[in-house]
Amino acid sequence: MTPSLARAGILLATLCGLAAAVWAFDRTGLGEILAVAKRVGVGGFLLYCLYSLGVFAVLGGAWLASAPDEPVGRIGLFAWARLVREAVADLLPFSQIGGIVVATRLLAADGVAGARVYASLIVDMTTEMAGQLVFTLFGAALLVTIVSGGGAQTLRPMILSGAVAMIALMIAFFVAQRSLLGLATRLAGHVLPQSALAMEGVEAELRRIYGRRRAVLAAFLLNLVGWVGSAAGAWIVLRLMGVELSFRAALSIESLIFMLRSVAFAVPGAIGVQEAAYALIGPLFGLPAESALALSLAKRARDLAIGLPTLAIWQFGEGRALLRGLRPSRK
């Protein structure tokens, strides 16, 4: 696929997503949605943001677990790289690849060995996908016990299709890991030209990490905790809005939303996909559409409140590094 064709595809996906978002808000009523969202309040919203940062600390721990022999004290660095990775993917028009490039550059620039950076990234992404698959299947099982009648029948094709797509993505990811190593090598050449990252070096590091089964299991469990923690955050927001919804129903809804976001990875920030999914899925669990879309708005606001300062700090650090590189040396 040529770059121009890829850009056209992303633009088309974005426009379709925006159309879906407009449909969801128009169908429900923007005024009613905003009225529910305002119940969170400034204090509640700040609490939600702080909670989300805690989830990123867990995800940073998962990436650190994927890089054995890195000291535990570096969890802050890995959590920061994970946060920047998410912010770039969600808020900049670079999709997931851009977030990966920036995050790996941060780790490598801070002294993490190049081979370990890229090998640990592959392990982290693999265990993250495995954790999401388990969480999705768990949510689907909860769906059967929560939703009865025609609602469950309506969701069944979507769940089965999404689960099959996720399993296919995981299989493709496992099979294509060698190709991903080649991609990592090329990224290293563009992002860190001075590094001598060799293909066999990354392969050896990847084999070594996979040989540390406890570390891989820890990465998987931490990523799974991250998925559950993110879903719990949605339940907290609903409680702050005064919306009564059982915790297990919130877990099931969020597992389906996460699944659809992953399958629709070509849409930047899952624009429209998330909103339309909430509008359709929420009512089946007894969650009014206006409350479901208010939750979606709270998530978008959280992404901006955390992501924009993150990008600003990252850019400030990049600027300082550039200035240090341009500053003439004194003999």
UniProtKB/TrEMBL annotation:
Pfam families the record matches: LPG_synthase_TM (PF03706)
Keywords: Cell membrane, Membrane, Transmembrane, Transmembrane helix
Keyword presence, Nucleus: no
Bilayer topology term: Multi-pass membrane protein
Compartments reported by the entry: Cell membrane
Listed transmembrane segments: 40-65, 133-152, 158-176, 215-238
Descriptive protein name: Flippase-like domain-containing protein
